[in-house]
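Problem 12. The chain below contains 119 residues. Write out its predicted structure in token notation.
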Amino acid sequence: MVAANLGLRNLKISYTGHAKFMSFGPTIQGIGSVERLDFFFKVKQSNEKSASPELDALDVINMSTIWFDLSGLGPLTWILQYLMTGIIKLINGFLVGKMMSYLREYIVEQLTGISFPIG
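Solution.
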């Protein structure tokens, strides 16, 4: 079994969307960042030959504030920007869950290609 605390720094977030009606409308762009994400993970290895390690635990320890900036909506952009702080606080748990889900999938995918010699 291997357990460790790891961290990611300077994560970038980007989003592009279109609000179209009859082919007319703005393109909305959002960029953001997460300065710091610290997490704990634990990997275990069975004693069977050719077995791949398995991810046993993956938990968020600490995450900095999510910063996000919108553009493309004209005067509505700066109005929404004030609302974004509250919206991000409301969906923070969802965003953390999504990031950890992608991270979990990536780690599991990488571990399937590894086999430690046993015996």
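Discussion. The two ends are 16 Å apart (CA to CA). Students who got a different answer should revisit the alignment rule from Section 12.3.
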